[in-house]
Amino acid sequence: MPRRYLFTVDDLKSYTQRFLMSLDVPQEDAGIMADILISADVRGVDSHGIIRLHTYYGNRLMQKLVEAASPTSVVHETPISLALDGGNGLGPVVAHRAMTRCIEKAKQVGMAAVTVRNSNHYGIAGYYAMMALSHDMIGVSLTNSQPLVAPTYGRTAMLGTNPIAVAVPAGAEYPYVLDMATSIVPIGRVTVYSKSGETIPSGWGMDKDGNLTESPDAVLDGGALLPLGGNDIMRGYKGYGLALLVDILSGVLSGAAFSTDVGHPSNPGQADIGHFFMALKVDLFRPIEEFKRGMDGLLEGMKGAPKAPGCDRIYIHGEKEFDHEKRCETEGVPVIAPVVDVLREAGEQVGVPFDLDPLGEKDTEG
Amino acid sequence: MPRRYLFTVDDLKSYTQRFLMSLDVPQEDAGIMADILISADVRGVDSHGIIRLHTYYGNRLMQKLVEAASPTSVVHETPISLALDGGNGLGPVVAHRAMTRCIEKAKQVGMAAVTVRNSNHYGIAGYYAMMALSHDMIGVSLTNSQPLVAPTYGRTAMLGTNPIAVAVPAGAEYPYVLDMATSIVPIGRVTVYSKSGETIPSGWGMDKDGNLTESPDAVLDGGALLPLGGNDIMRGYKGYGLALLVDILSGVLSGAAFSTDVGHPSNPGQADIGHFFMALKVDLFRPIEEFKRGMDGLLEGMKGAPKAPGCDRIYIHGEKEFDHEKRCETEGVPVIAPVVDVLREAGEQVGVPFDLDPLGEKDTEG
To answer: Superfamily assignment of A185-225 in CATH?
Structure first.
């Protein structure tokens, strides 16, 4: 674990916003981007946070591979639905607009769905699902992504790690926030093992010939990830089915690219990524207070269930991330030294020096 | 594999209807039950087919544990939503009514969702999702069920095998029909291993102390199934998260029982099972013909992808079941001898002799 510097949430957001504005992103959009990116760090999903500010977003903005103004347009609209074209804009900005419109519609009619085509990587899927929570709605957020996952009985990457995110309000308990790739692990996890020279657990990935491998490099070198479930004995075709479903709703239904046509983040062409969002008012079905009591009962029951040998806690989805958020509010948000180095360098390049004073440093996880 | 008798679809449906009518199920409802139960056999999901006519439905009707008239009532309704009470009726009848209303609403406004509380086991989840297909809609069907699955880091059954079914129309290709338990395998699969005296693959289930076991009997004797994904290294908490989501939407949102409060099929009390349905018109987002061409492209691409070593075919979800359906139409529907024996005995009991002439017999799978 490399040394980590701790920064305040506000400092990181403010820097992110200034950085993006220097690359012609409008002030409001840059603020939205900052909120979404730093939320990932705050929730402990560092892989989707400030680490991508330069390496993905900044780079593509500088190369004019995405539209800094994120010029979204309406393809088709009804009171309960909206099909958007993201205008090859910034994924998080486009997605934020889409979910905002989705919630507005759901406020009027109780439920709405929005598709987006011609977008880019949108960061953490869970952010948009969670936007529904304060409105006492259930939120859904799906996106496709570049091919990394092999279908069951296949040996090449045909589907993205296509995440499913669903957020559901609760009462005294934290909300339920599922935010999962439909592969066993995201590709970033394999990269971490590669960098540290460790082998990966057998079953996570295959080499370019379709053989299961414990070598992270063999997966990265033309291999593929396995869908949730893994092999057929463990019913990996269910994870494959979920990945396919996400591609249907995000890609085919929206009119975006799908399967192997989705552009890779490091590819100069348009990614044409698609998203799908839904918002559903709880009180269409049940008074919200009754529902929240039910949620508390379900979640408390789960957490209080007897533990497996050697385990002392059962978690609800999103709980670890909410705990991490609390720690960040008091201690600051950890950013690893190599990322700070990249930010310093990128800041020089665009003329927005990364001049934040860390609150402190730490060497260990926690 | 025991000897199997082949019957025509119509004969099996007609017998099922007559059997249920003798137990005071109204003619139309009995016809719906027959269609749903026999569809399971026709699609190769024998575990949810005519095998349950007596062992589950007939038994509960005779004991007056379910209401033969399936008296559903409306709890709350809006143009896009419906919350139903199933009146402790027959699950398939109640679910069929719910999805029929859901589709009617979606025809009017484009999309609708329906919850059901106070219902019973509804058979194959995919049936109701597939009802949307002929309307060029995407259909969703979820249900909770009696506790059989342990949450990650837990050691007792806290959640049902809570299936997720989604059906999506295609053009020249078969529709995409995902119909999956959120556990690795359903409990019936473990029972099959127990009966044949074989061990189960490690990872499917745990014994009553929370240790992984290869003994099917140890799973059945107070143990639990593992969620899709399996252990934490293979990200079983995602399967656990999906099972929890299904319980939230089917159980908590509908006001039905959830988690360990859901009644067991062999328990004399009310099951109070909950369901959740959705229907979504494709042309809210994209012209249907364009969408279907996109679906064909996605599905053909998947099936044409390079195969893993030793594999000669990549399947789409539902494809094997559609193939099975075709075979049944020409050859007849296979019913294993032990089930025929039970049907004969039950038929005597209710005064509706199982007098169907088989088209033929076979000894092998296929």
So the answer is: Hypothetical oxidoreductase yiak; domain 3 (3.30.60.50)
